[in-house]
Design brief:
Blueprint (H helix, E strand, L loop, with lengths): L4 E2 L8 H9 L1 H4 L7 H13 L4 E5 L2 H11 L5 E4 L5 H9 L3 E4 L22 E5 L10 H11 L2 E5 L7 E2 L2 E2 L6 E5 L12 E5 L4 H9 L3 E3 L2 E2 L10 H12 L1 H19 L5 E3 L6 E2 L5 E5 L6 H10 L2 E2 L24 H9 E4 L7 H12 L1
Parallel strand pairs: 1-16, 3-4, 3-5, 5-6, 6-9
Antiparallel strand pairs: 2-10, 7-8, 7-14, 9-10, 11-12, 13-15, 15-17
Helix pairs in contact: 1-8, 3-8, 4-5, 4-7, 9-12
The structure holds ligand T4K.
Length: 364
Amino acid sequence: MSEPINVTRSSMPDFNEYLEEIKDLWNTRWLTNMGVKHQKLEVALADYLQSSYVTLFTNGHMALENTLEAFSLTGEVITTPFTFASTTHAIVRKGLTPVFCDINKEDYTIDVTQIKKLITKKTSAILPVHVYGNVCDTIKIEELAKEYDLKVIYDAAHTFGVRIAGKSSGEFGDASVFSFHATKVFHTIEGGAVTYHDSTLQPILMGLKNFGITDYEKIDYIGGNSKMNEFQAAMGLCNLRHLKEEINKRKAVYERYHRNLSGISGITLNRIPDLVESNYAYYPVLFDGYSCTRDEIYQKLRVNGVYSRKYFYPLTSQFECYKGVTDTGDTPVAEYIAQRILTLPIYPELEFDQIDRICEIIKS
Ligand code: T4K
């Protein structure tokens, strides 16, 4: 039997390139605490993401938790349950209440027509998720935020490298939070970052990620430790050099799937709108009225060594740990999609004959 095909496979720089990048760490012995690599990566990412400020974190989740804390949010945060555990967990772990809004059927992001009715006196922020690389309706969200004086923090874990009419996905809202996990289009092994435009946020985020230390003898915030170390940052510096090439390879994979699976009744493919430069992070397929259910396809692929994933099933609002803790909200579209969607393997090295085989299994 051939090698198993997982939903993704980490991109790696050439081994010698990484060795070269980390070589000087053996001389300097400066391994963490915002060293040279960390500083270089922050500057490079601010440029790449077209953001005034970037603060790095040891992972996307801690970036999210610290951002929620930095804005001193209280009460309720409007979000969606069609996401990875991290989004909802961050809200709850920061002592806030998630209020679940439904998603739309077109791109699986927050249904902006449903937000207004969820706003109460207790609402302090909206935390929408850019799902699979699909960017939310940022214009409408920011209109609402302005009208009701709410903060907007985007979970941009899936949209590194995405541009809309030339604008980076890191430019929207009060802040955008990225994940640089090993499974992401751009990674630092584990890692994450926040992009923002308000300079006053910078010392707060810095403090929160490093025990609140603002000077040797000055501790201004009750911060924890969520710094990115030098080996992570070095991986980021290497991966950033090859990002364009990696995204182009993903695009070819994406298009091969599209060629194989377009025009089949009961199969809905993701649509990338005009003016959007995608990062081709995920390949979601909706099985709705197809001759097999999503779960049957998932099993059939598994027995053939293909490990697709049900991102995102179950909805976070239905997690066991939230039973009796949070209100599940009224999200029929999210429920419908979560029952029917499957993310197929996608990564730069995935070969056309492997894609064709996956599609044959689905079609047969
Ligand atoms: N918000 C959203 C919307 C997110 O999707 C995420 C993370 C976050 C926030 C939080 O960001 P981080 O704190 O993670 O930076 C994976 C990732 O661990 C997670 O980062 C990601 N979302 C989520 C969607 O997917 P799992 O539990 O599905 O990963 P796992 O270990 O099953 O790996 C999936 C496949 O990836 C494996 O079958 C093979 C491949 N893989 C995995 C690892 C760990 C590699 O090729 N290399 C590796 O090192 O969560």
